[in-house]
Amino acid sequence: MTEADFLATTRTFYDAVAEDYATLFRDALARMPLERAMLGLFAELVDGDGPVADLGCGPGEATAVLASLGLPVFGVDLSESMLAIARREHPGLRFEQGSMLELDLPDGALSGAMSFYSSIHTPLERLPDLFAEFHRVLEPGAPLLVAFQAGEEHRHHDRPWGRPVALTFLRRRPQDMAELLTAAGFVLVSRTVREPDPALDETSPQAFLFARKPADGA
Q1: Residue 211 phi/psi, 5° resolution?
Q2: How many beta carbons lie within 10 A of that of residue 5, not counting itself?
Q3: Using one digit for the tens of pLDDT, what is the confidence trace for 140-171?
Q4: Which of 53, 104, 162, 191 is the most exposed place for a label (fewest CB within 10 A)?
């Protein structure tokens, strides 16, 4: 599958299910204390004065949490339908359409970046390019949070909510993701994996990797 193919497939899927997805996950973070703690830790680690990006922001729930923690955050997403919901639900925040693999940002523009379950549709062979792009747009010393479902068995969704679309959600091994981040020039800060929560209908562990771009001279 070419880059254009997987980006188009991902965009089409989320454009089709955006309202259903947003309804299902609205206020989900209120029931996820560990995730809120991870977002709080990320906010604590941001030390620069520049903007912070929620890359693959979807309907903007996590973006809004970061904003409530005082970060000058904006969201980026492929899906215009997801962005329409984010702008509707969080009118005080900025949301932009774009691909994480080719961000419309200058080098070193961000004081922090987060990929909160948004790398899960990027093919394995493109993850080095994705993490290189994250590294490019972060200023020296800035933190990166990457959250994803952990494991090796992928999950395919076919016609969710009766919509005529399908997409595979890719599971990753935390060690593999940590190695890819290190290869892209990041320094790993911490690694957290929690067990699936049946109350949230989860079938796989959830992983949270914190990394940082080395400071100048480090």
Answers
A1: -135, 170
A2: 10
A3: 999 999 999 999 888 888 887 888 888 888 99
A4: 162
